[in-house]
Every structure is written in structure tokens, then in C-alpha cells.
Amino acid sequence: MDLERAEAIALRTQPVTESSLIVTWFTREFGKLKTMAKGARRAKSPFRGKIDLFYLDEIVFLRSRRSDLHLLHDCFLENPHATLRESVRSLVAASYAAELVEIATEPEDANSKMFQLLHDLLGALERRGTDAMLIWFELKLLEAAGWKPKWSGSGSASRLLESLAATSLAGVGRVRLSSAQAAVARETVWLFWDTHIGKSPKSRKLLLQDSV
Q1: Measuring CA to CA, which of 65, 85, 120, 173 is 20 to 30 A from 140?
Q2: Distance separating alpha carbons of residues 3 and 13, to the nearest angstrom
Q3: Residues 100, 203: contact at Cβ < 8 Å?
């Protein structure tokens, strides 16, 4: 079979043998997919230094005929988002965003808008993350996944969420929320998320402990 290429962000890595990894990617071309990276954990592997969480890579893979686990043939590092690892807050925020994408998507269901949202958010988090930015991302992610919330009523949470949803990423990066505003906004969005998607991200606890 022919090799396929994709622009990909690493969402998860899982050791499967002493030398190999299963990598869950979110790709621009194919959506979420998994590849086996044989020998990736070896010191002299050609994949060494090219695969880690949040890395932006161009991947080349051989599609499996039998399962949804494909064979990673080659990998070209484009952006490691290295500064995310310099701050616990940025790392927690990036982990939360990646988990949201993994939960909200089905295997190999392409969604270029969602890919661009994650791509842009990771870049923004490297510069400066905010509570408003993550809430904005969750709103936009729900919209891209086909669950655009309709906030009813005239309460402060509804007005705040409507305002954030209408703002660009650049604009929301300048928004500063009080602790009370951030808490009520998160509570409202998370209730919608849990009701419609049915699975809560495990990293929420870390997010609350070290909110950006």
C-alpha cells in the first residue's frame, strides 16, 4: 500500500514494548489516528527526539488493512512547543486541551477546523495562557465538534460565555477574568460538556489545582 502523510499533533504516547510506542495523533488530514512507532524508545532510533506530547510533526505512515493501528514509517519534527514544558501551568493547560480533543473526536474523522484550534492554542499557551483562553477553547471545540452551545437566560455566566465565544484567540488572550467569573464560566461549560459528551476529562482536577 502507498504511504500517507499528515500534519500531526501528538496527543498521547503509550509504551507497548521495551522499544516501541503507540502514538495517538490529531492530524489535519485524517483527524485522530494511532500509529505504532517501532523502535522509538531505542537510543539510536530515527524517531528519537521527534515524538513527544504536543509535538507538531509531519508524519508518514502505512495504513493497516486489519485495524485502526497504523505503522509509523517516518516523522519530521516541525515544532516541539518546548516552552510549554517550562511552566507547570502551561503544561497542565496543554494536557487539558489535548485530552478534550481526544475525548470529543472519533477515530479518523477529519476536522481541519479543530486541528487549527489546537494548533493555535498551543502556540498561544507558549506565550501566555489565561483562564479565559481555555474556556474560549472549550467553547470553540464544542462548536467544531457539532455541539455548539446555546446559552439561555440573561445571567452573567451566559453573557460572559457569549462574549468569549464571539472573540478571537488574540482578543481572548487580553481578557482577564476574576476568580469568581472563571469559576462560574467553567462550571457552566463543564455541565454542558458532561451532559452532551458524557465523559469528563481526567485532567480537570489538575486544571483546578493550578489554573492558568
Answers
A1: 85
A2: 22
A3: no
- What pTM was estimated for this model as a whole? 0.93
Distance CA 94, CA 52 (A): 13
pLDDT digits (tens, 9 = 90+) for 66-105: 999 999 999 999 999 999 999 899 999 999 999 999 999 9
75 forms bridges with which residues in the sheet? Answer: 59
Cα gap 78→32, rounded to integer Å? 18
What domains lie within the chain, and their CATH numbers? 3-79 (2.40.50.140), 85-209 (1.20.1440.120)
What b/e string do you get for 129-166 counting C-beta neighbours within 10 Å, with b at 16 or more?
bbbbbbbbbbbbbbebbeeebebeeeeebbebbeebbe
Burial of 32 (0-12, 13-18, 19+ CB in 10 A): buried
Q: Classify 167 in phi/psi space as left (phi over 0), alpha (psi -120 to 50) or beta.
A: beta
